[in-house]
Amino acid sequence: MDKDKNNNFTPRARKVVELARAEARRFNHNYVGTEHILLGLIKLGEGVAVNVLGRMGLDLKTVRGAVEKQVGPGPEEAKAPDTIPLTPRVQKVMAHAVTEARALGHAYVGTEHILLGLLKEGEGVAARVLQQLDVDLERCRKEILADIDPSAADESEKKDGDTPPPSDDSSDDAPPPSRRPSSEEGARPGRGERLSLLKTFGRDLTELAKAGELDPVIGRKEEIRRVVQILCRRTKNNPVLIGERLDFNNPLTHRDLSQSVTLVTAHGKDSVDSLDWPALARAKQTLAFYMAVQRFADLMNMLIDNGRSADTPVAIIENGTTPRQRVIRGTLGQLTLLAEANRVAAPAMLIVGEVAALGAELPGTMPHLSQNYAKPDFRVANKG
Asked: Which residue of 128, 191, 274, 355 is 20 to 30 Å from 155, comparing CA positions?
């Protein structure tokens, strides 16, 4: 094989071709035919293809004898070239192998795909040898698919309407079904295994939508628009949705104001005392505090004591993502007064950083999110 053109063939698949050339020399043949590829697959002694052929009752000695009956050895005086060429039929088999691999969603071509290619070609010496040895080519194909792609094998059985004979796994060479390699290298998951993992850890939203089992999406128009916009990009088109939706029309980062976001749980005195306050107090970053209502005074004092300006904008999001959501804006130095004047109660989230002031300035801000809160009376507060 041309290495440049077949760099997706696995090391075992390449080894099969080397072994096939060795078999051709053994027969004094100056070509590599499908019969030599079949012998190479068996002589390799490992991989999906040899496991399937073993279950079909084939071994190297038996197949060699059948090949000799079909084509016989070449003349003794014949000298094979240093690199024995592949016949056009073998090249066709390799092309079939690539096609089979692509059809199964594999990015590589292994011994299993080469055997599928031999079966698909169906007219060479290898096919005649298999038929001579009473190997059912269709059953052999199903056995291969059962090893590397159980879902494809199931679909094939449903279409045919018959049940294939149970495979004989008593051979020492064939691993038990649970340990059969799903691919040529034994590390790459087969398509069936990948589908199984998807079903285990994921949900098919398309199927759920078709069945009418998806909950209606309410109040997510802007998020959906933004996700679609990102998905339509040619690059950087992977949106990530994390946590609850913060419907206060406010970015958490901004190229001129904040380059990072830090999420902080402020539940309990110990969690607050153990925080790295000098790092949190640095400018040019956004802080998002969860479960922080009872700790507003501590948060305000620790940030200011460690160098964060008292004029840093803040936003309190109360009952986020619900019809009762409020967003109360002010500055860090006003935090406790804002919370007291507006009787802020849990659940609420605190956003600290210059971006907290942007929400009221952005187009499309909902009036009740930016105006429905009380302004604290700082004159009264300052008297004490």
From this structure: 128
